Amino acid sequence: MNxxxxxxxxKRYQRGKQETLALQEVDIDIAPGEFLAVxxxxxxxxxxxxxxxxxxxxxxxxxxxxxGNVVNGPVTEVxxxxxxxxxxEWLNTLENVLFQADIRGLPVKEYRERxxxxxQQVSLQDxxxxxxxxxxxxxxxxxxxxxxxxxxxxxxxxxxxxxALDALTREQxxxxxxxxxxxxxxxxxxxxxxxxxxxxxxxxxxxxSPRPGRIVRELPIDLPRVRGLDARRDQRFSDYCNExxxxxxxxxxxxxxxTPPAAQAA
Length: 266
Prior knowledge:
Elements: E1 4-15, E2 18-30, E3 35-39, H1 46-54, E4 61-66, E5 69-70, E6 78-81, H2 93-103, H3 108-121, H4 137-149, E7 155-159, H5 167-184, E8 187-192, H6 195-201, E9 204-208, E10 215-220, H7 235-251, H8 261-265
Parallel strand pairs: 3-8, 3-9, 6-7, 7-8
Antiparallel strand pairs: 1-2, 1-4, 4-5, 9-10
Helix pairs in contact: 2-3, 2-4, 3-4, 6-7
């Protein structure tokens, strides 16, 4: 296995006479089995980066190599999870997971056992025959993750997969995803706005600048696994989060609160 190499990648979008520079000179090496989180402000090109790795859009300059193969079209050996689970309402949970095999032209019947095993792994075995409208937001996202893993891809791309979930569900999904990753050791690229989420999940966090997106800091995360709820009490967790937030303060992405004059006078 060769992992992923992103070399000198720039992405420009052209709409008529208007040009948008989304990414500029991005260089990343991702080891096989690494959990990489990419955090940055809205519009910095995080999702663009994921789509480039998947081969859904072409690079403007530079190159991307996945498992030794140059990306010049859609990558087949990849699982993708978006912020919205995009389940088909007329299919039950099991059928939605098996839809991955169907669209790839794989023998659906032969993948049924694996689909059920994945549903058990994400605690949905009792909801295999339930339809999307009968599932909570977290359950729908678990089904989407199971679907992405059905064909056993070496690479999992996740674009703000927990962004639409409430805080408690999001925390549980974070715990569940870590357990799933530890059991499979897939290479994961995880896109997020959440500094906490990035630090708690990743082996390494890449911090991106505002558009045009560039990698401005790389932080290896030295926190023991499993990172359960207690990980937030580790001083290193606070230090990593503070370091990332300081970067965003320095870039003007975050602004420090000021005491109102009336409060100062009081």
